[in-house]
Amino acid sequence: MSTTHDSREAILAAAEAMNFLQRHIDRYVDSEGRNGHIISLVPFDGPEFTPTLLLGTTGRKSGELRLTPLSYGLYGGNWIVVGSNAGAVTDPAWVLNIRSNPRIRFQVAMQAFYGEARVLENDERSLVWNYMRTTTPAFAKYEKLSRELPVVTLRPLESAPLFSRDPADPQRIG
Fold it and tell me: Could you tell me the pTM of the whole model?
């Protein structure tokens, strides 16, 4: 009986998280980055002041723009994101998308860039992971996972337009 209850609770928690993420994307895009860059993750046992960016990847199956809000750090002149997937046993879809196509578009507050994403490996990953773990303590709780969390560097190549819902923008979001 408790297994059914636990499953229902997990489904409700996942739905709440998805609603939170969509509202966050909406707030970020609709305010052109003025609102949504710094958010509170206290409802999810995270820090009160968390800097976030919007990562746009190309869906590996759909070919469509996929937008994901992520907390980030800065290291070596690049933005760093971690594929924690909230502690799930699988990598998040955005990581699979960048492994298929590393060309990205991302927005940090009111700045946007076209860039390249790269999943770090070996010593480079360890070095940057240790940095991210100390600057974002929430990541440390995921170290006990059965998978190694992808640590990804986002390298800006050139300025890009902010994410938009404008029908005239060929790269607009839904």
Answer: 0.87
